[in-house]
Write a structure and sequence with these properties.
The protein contains 12 helices and 18 strands. With 367 residues, the chain is α+β, with helices and mostly antiparallel strands. The N and C termini lie far apart (73 Å).
């Protein structure tokens, strides 16, 4: 049967669909995403099938016997065997009907768990993702102590950090995407091409850009993965959240957009993305010294905040009535951005907090 006519039971029995749900890779992502584009009416039944497969897998995993339980079961079996006559009846014949049914069900559960558990072994690892690619890849490995410069076929540049590796096609021709695979840490300077977006697959994370510079930190055993933007805009999403959003027809909700001085951190334990500011924000490369003067004399605070926003590319939310017209005289030296914001807030009896990578100014202000 053609998968164009699939119903719920067909998805549940399709090995390629089951592997995509439990152990997705780049090729299966591409296949089933394209399938949904061709068959949008299948979205609901695919979502239902995915839910059932994940639920079954979780239930089977919870039923997995622990080592001490296995040992106890064997002890009981041995005791029962030794206490039986030399020519006992069949084990099944001696069991009450309900006991035999439960035993049969448990055997099926254990067999099922063993089969399903093989599908979830480090499915997002660098090795698994690169192995799933049908065309040949070039791999660069940095085994030294310094940085390794890698030039891609489109002239994009990768500064590969020690103990890191990256794989990419010999050429980007014949594809509407430029795809690279990373484990470790690297700084990317991507040549702009609006018709051919650039993707970096780094374990659970996918980073998408058109042309910009950014850093990815994604080591195999790290508790967190991180993407930091230097210039331009970067879209980041986790493989799991993308699959869920596609089936829910909410693709845009899976993506986190970050700009210079912002970062996204992915917690492997919580399987969640968190957007925040970098530890030490710096003025944008395009900013001029006039965009961030060192001193202000009787200047409205709203104008100072606007000046900082332009210089650092970071949003500052404040009340124009309570804070915007407050006049401030201040001189800055080598203070960090956080210290500058703190000094301004003290001058107008306000405080700040950071939420979703932006400053929120609070307090009664000067009025």
């Amino acid at each position: 049967m053609s998968d164009e006519n699939y119903q719920l039971d067909d998805f549940l029995s399709d090995e390629y669909f089951k592997r995509w749900v439990l152990s997705p890779d780049v090729e299966s992502d591409r296949y089933w995403n394209d399938y949904l584009l061709r068959n949008p009416d299948k979205r609901a039944v695919m979502r239902h099938a995915r839910f059932l497969l994940i639920q079954l897998h979780q239930d089977l995993d919870q039923l997995k016997p622990r080592e001490y339980q296995v040992e106890s079961m064997w002890d009981q079996i041995e005791k029962q065997t030794l206490s039986q006559p030399s020519h006992p009846k069949s084990l099944w014949a001696r069991m009450p009907r309900w006991t035999a049914s439960v035993a049969a069900a448990m055997i099926l559960v254990v067999i099922g768990w063993l089969a399903w558990s093989n599908l979830t072994i480090n499915e997002y690892s660098y090795a698994c993702q690169t192995a799933s690619i049908q065309h040949s890849l070039t791999e660069k490995i940095n085994e030294g102590q310094g940085d390794l410069l890698v030039i891609l076929p489109d002239s994009s540049r990768i500064t590969l950090k020690p103990h890191s590796r990256v794989s990419f096609p010999i050429a980007f021709n014949g594809s509407d995407k430029r795809e690279v695979y990373l484990t470790g840490e690297a700084f990317f300077q991507v040549s702009k091409n609006i018709n051919r977006p650039f993707y970096v697959y780094s374990h659970e994370l996918v980073t998408k850009v058109l042309g910009t510079s950014f850093t990815i930190k994604a080591f195999e055993k790290s508790k967190e993965l991180e993407v930091i933007v230097t210039t331009g805009k970067v879209s980041v999403y986790s493989r799991k959240s993308l699959m869920e959003s596609i089936l829910e027809n909410k693709e845009s909700e899976a993506t986190t957009m970050i700009t210079p001085n912002q970062r996204v951190q992915y917690s492997r334990s919580h399987e969640a993305l968190q957007k925040s500011l970098v530890d030490k924000p710096v003025p944008l490369p395009s900013a001029k010294w006039t965009d961030m003067p060192n001193s202000f004399r009787e200047v409205p605070v709203g104008k100072i905040f606007d000046t900082i926003q332009r210089a650092y590319g970071i949003d500052i939310q404040y009340d124009p009535v309570a804070h915007g017209d407050c006049l401030l005289t201040a001189s800055f030296g080598k203070e960090t951005l956080f210290e500058k914001i703190d000094l301004i807030c003290k001058g107008i009896e306000a405080t700040y907090r950071i939420e979703n990578a932006q400053f929120i100014i609070e307090g009664r202000g000067c009025h």
